[in-house]
Amino acid sequence: MYQDKITPNSSNRNAHEIDYEIFGEEMQFVEIELDPEEGVVAEAGTFMMMDDQIKMNTILGDGSNQETGILGKIFSAGKRILTGESLFMTVFTNDGFGKKKISFASPYPGKIVPIDLTAFGGKFICQKDAFLCAAKGVSIGVEFSKNIGRGLFGGEGFIMQKLEGDGLGFIHAGGTMSKKVLQPGEVLKVDTGCIVGFTQDVAYDIEFVGGIKNTVFGGEGLFFATLKGPGTVYVQSLPFSRLAGRVLAMAPRTGKGTKGEGSILGGIGDLLDGDNRF
């Protein structure tokens, strides 16, 4: 269990101040405490439970102060389509008189990571499906890569998400999360799918693995992600794409008997039973 209270550095904060508590180990959820009129914005499908007198409202965009007018909201929401997310987000606001609690759950085994944007210069960049929820007033946008090589081979494409503002956001890391604080000039090489997010000062690029044997037989892909400090990097041990790939690989195929995960025959058995045709 993890608990914290975010204390504002200034009375001029735009985002709402929220208290939170994280429960669980492998399948975590975050419980957020809202004062009257405080709100939190979340992705569709992350809601778990909430107290009475919390009002749910589906909005176009993220509800941040950066959106001005209907055109600004449409443009902000339209950019989210590029990340594979919905046009709409959900805002939960405490309409009661006392403190109320609302909870959001992680989508698959891993860790929920609180991100205080004031500690990172007001901006944090993360992979497209990492965002869970944030204090109302935090802007959830897209970060376009200016590096063609990074966009084509970097695992996350040209587009990543960015959180901007002076509030608190929550992201999700698959498996076990590792936080690395890089010194100026320090380089960290990471599997492209294992990146959760990083601060805006980190230089992100890709590097070819090199070597014919490594390329053909290495099984680790053709490229590394290189992250150069200064800055903070969050790395996950179990990207969702890797988890989904393992599940699909072990799923029985339609119309075929299973030989068991530990079978000596394995895939060779498929060749011997006549099910594979060329």
Per CATH, the class reads Alpha Beta
Question: CATH superfamily, please?
Answer: Mitochondrial biogenesis AIM24
* Radius of gyration, in angstroms, nearest whole number: 22 Å
Structural classification: alpha+beta
Name of the CATH architecture: 4-Layer Sandwich
CATH topology: Double-stranded beta-helix
- Individual helix count: 5
Strand order of the largest sheet: 6-7-4-11-14-9
Secondary-structure element pattern, one letter each: EEEEEEHEEEEEEHEEEEEEHEEHH
Strand content: 35-45%
Ends distance: 54 Å
Spell out the key features of this protein.
5 helices; 20 strands; alpha+beta; globular; disordered N terminus; disordered C terminus; 6-stranded antiparallel β-sheet; 278 residues; single chain; Double-stranded beta-helix; 15% helix
Q: Can you walk me through this structure?
A:
There is one protein chain. By secondary structure, this protein is an alpha+beta fold. The protein has a single domain (2-6, 15-244), classed as Mitochondrial biogenesis AIM24 (Double-stranded beta-helix), CATH 3.60.160.10. It is built from 5 helices and 20 strands. It has helices at residues 69-81, 148-153, 212-217, 240-250, 267-272; strands spanning 2-5, 19-23, 29-34, 39-42, 47-50, 54-60, 88-94, 100-105, 110-116, 123-126, 131-135, 139-144, 159-164, 168-174, 177-182, 187-191, 195-199, 203-208, 223-228, 231-236. The strands form 4 sheets. The protein has a 6-stranded antiparallel β-sheet. It has a 6-stranded antiparallel β-sheet with strand order 12-13-10-17-20-15. Strands 1-2-3-8-5 form a 5-stranded antiparallel β-sheet, with no helix packed on it.
